Amino acid sequence: MISLFKTIWNWLDDRLGISVLLSPAKHIAPHDAKWWYVFGSATLVAFIVQVATGVALAFSYISSSSQAYETLLFITNSAPFGRFLRGLHYYGASAMVLMVGAHMAQTFLFGAYKFPREMTWTTGIMLLAFTLVMGFTGQLLRWDSTAAWSVVVAAEQAGRIPIIGGWVARFILGGNSIGGATLSRFFAIHVFVLPGIMFAFIGLHLWLVFRHGISEPPVAGKPVNPATYRAEYEELLKKSGKPFWPDLAWRDVIISTLLIVAITVAAFFVGPPVLDKPPDPSILAADPKPDWYLLWYFGLLSLIPARIEGYVMIGMPILIGLLLLFVPIWNHKGERAASRRPWAIAVVCLSVIMIGALWWEGQHSPWSPNFEAQPLSEKVVGASSGPIFTGAQLFHDKGCLNCHLIQGDGGRRGPDLTYIADKLTHDNLVIRIVNGGTNMPAFGPSLKPGELDALVAFLETRKRPFRRQEQQADTASSKTAATRDWHR
Amino acid sequence: MNTSLTESSSTPLTESPEEISRRRFFEKLSIALIGLCTAIVGVPLVGFIIAPFFRNVPEKWVTIGKPDDFQIGKTVAVTVTDPSPLPWAGITAKSAVWLRRVTEDSFIAFSANCMHLGCPVRWLEEADLFMCPCHGGVYYSDGQVAAGPPPRPLFRYEVRVTNGEVQMKQAIVPISTTL
Lengths: 488, 179
Fold this sequence. Notes:
The structure holds 2 protein chains of 2 kinds.
Chain A: H1 2-16, H2 18-22, E1 28-29, H3 39-58, H4 68-77, H5 82-109, H6 118-141, H7 145-158, H8 165-173, H9 180-212, H10 229-240, E2 242-243, H11 244-270, H12 295-303, H13 306-330, H14 342-364, H15 378-381, H16 386-397, H17 400-403, E3 405-406, E4 409-410, H18 426-435, H19 451-459, H20 465-487
Antiparallel strand pairs in A: 1-2, 3-4
Helix pairs in contact in A: 3-5, 3-11, 4-5, 5-6, 5-11, 6-9, 6-13, 7-8, 12-14, 16-19, 18-19
Chain B: H1 2-8, H2 17-49, H3 51-54, E1 61-65, E2 75-81, E3 94-101, E4 107-111, E5 122-124, E6 129-131, E7 138-140, E8 145-147, E9 156-157, E10 159-162, E11 165-169
Antiparallel strand pairs in B: 1-11, 2-3, 3-4, 4-9, 5-6, 6-7, 7-8, 10-11
C-alpha cells in the first residue's frame, strides 16, 4: 500500500515538479536567523487568512449599494459561522497590519535593507501601502453608515489634490455623490485589483528573499561593503548555514500558529465590529471614524492647524512614502547593527510613540463635540431651582455641554469649566459667552433676555470647594460684620 | 561588439543580413501587435473605469414638500432622493439637506456636509448652531463658520416655491479645497 502511494507520488512529482517547486524552502540561510525573523512569514500567514476568509465571505456578500448591508446582517446573524468568519477577516486584517509593521521595524533596525537587499525593502514598503489601502477599502465594504460617510471623507481628502483632485474625488464616489456606483468599485479594488497586485508583489518579494538570501543578524563593527558583501555572505552560508526548512522554519510555524490562535480566539469571543446604522446618507446622526489601524491618521488630521492641513493631507503620505522607498538608496552600506545606529533606534521609537499618541487621541477624539451629553444632575448643579438651576439647563440646551466638561460630564472639545469661576470674573464670563472666543461661537445673538444672567449665575458657582468655603466664610463674616455694624 | 555577443546566445552567427533583418521585422511586428492588442482591450477598459470622471449630471429641481409641511423659523432635515439613480442604488440614492422656512414663501437649504471633510453636520435647535461630529466644526444658523476647522460656510442650495411645491436645485457640493 505504501509503495503504491510512493509510486503515485513519484509520478506526480516527476510530471508536476512539486519537489522542484518547493525546493526554495530548503535554501540555505544563516543559522542564527531565529526569533527576530518570524514577522515576515507571520504577515504572509495573515494574508493567506485574509484571502481564505475573504473568498468565503464573498459567497454571501453582494456588492450592491442597496443589498450589501442586508447581506452583512445575514452573514453576521443568520449564516452558520458567518459572525466567526467576519471576525476572522477583521482580526486577520489587524494581525496583518501589526505583523507588517513589526517586520518593517525589525528589517530597519537590523539594517537588512542595505546592499544587496534594497529592492526587497522597496517591494516590502509597497506591500505595507497596499495593506493599509486594503484595510481602508475593507472597512468600506462593511457597508454601514460609518462606511458610507467614510467614503465621503475620503473623497473630500482626495479632492484637495491640486488640479486632479475633483476627478479623483468623483472616481472614489463613482459620481458626484454616494450612489449605486460607489460600493461596487471599492469591492472591485478590494477583492480583485489590490489582491492581484499584492500576489505579484509578494511573489517578487519572496523571489528577492531567495535571490539575495535571508540577511544574517548584524554584528557591530562589521559594516556592509558592497564590494565584498556577497562573497562574505556566501562564505558564511558555506561555513554555518542551515536549510530554512525545517531547521529554521519551525519558529515561523510556531509564531504563525500562535497568530492563528489569537485571531481565532478574538473572532470567537470578541466577534466582528458591530454594524452601524444602514448606509443611508439621509441619516445625519453619524460619526464616521476609521478602523483602529488608521485612527492615528484621523488623529493627526484633527490636531494639525487647519491652515496647513491640506498640505499635510496630501504631502505627508507622499513624503513618508518617498522617505521609506529611498532609505536604502542613500543608506545602502555601512554599519547594520542597531547599537551603532542610534538614529535608527530613535526613528523607530519616535514613530511608535507618535503613532501611539495619535492613535490614543484618535480613539478618544477630544475635538469632537459630545452629542450624547445629558443634562447635569442636581447634585452637580447644586440647586434644584432658581437661576443657577436654569443656567445649568441652558448650559446643556445651548450646546455648551457638548464641548465643555463640568465635573467629568460633557465634551472635551473646549476647556474644562469645572472650576471656571476661579479663573474668570463675572464680566469675563459675560464677554466670553456673548462674543465667543478662540474656537468658540458667540452666543450673544442667540440668547434671550435673562438667559445670559442665568448662564453666568451657574458658571459663577463652578469653583474649587475650598474657594467656595472661603467665599462662604467671607460672605458670612462680612454679613456678621454688617449685622454687628447695623446693631451698633 | 556587445550587440553581437548578446545575440550570439540566441542567434546563429551564420545568419545572413537578410535573415537578421527579417527577424528584426518580425520582432518589431510582434511588439506592435502586442501593443495594439493591449490598446484594443485596454482603452475601453480604462474608459469604463474612469467614466465617472466625465459623467455630466444635470442639476435638476426636485420637490421636497409643500410649504405647509414646514413651520416658519424651524430648521429640519429633509430627505432628498436622487431623481435618476442607478437602479441598484437603493437607500444610497437618498441624501439630506437642512431646510429652514424663513417666511411664508422663503426657504433656505443648507448642505448637510461639513465644509471641512464632508461629515454630516447636525442642527442644534436650542443652541442655534450646526455642529459636526468629526472634527468639531461649528456653524451659526446662517451657515457661517463659528468655530473649528471648516474653511468656508455651509453650502446653500437654491430653493424655490413653485406650483405649491417647495423645490430644491440639486448641485454638486463643492470640495473644500484649502491648498
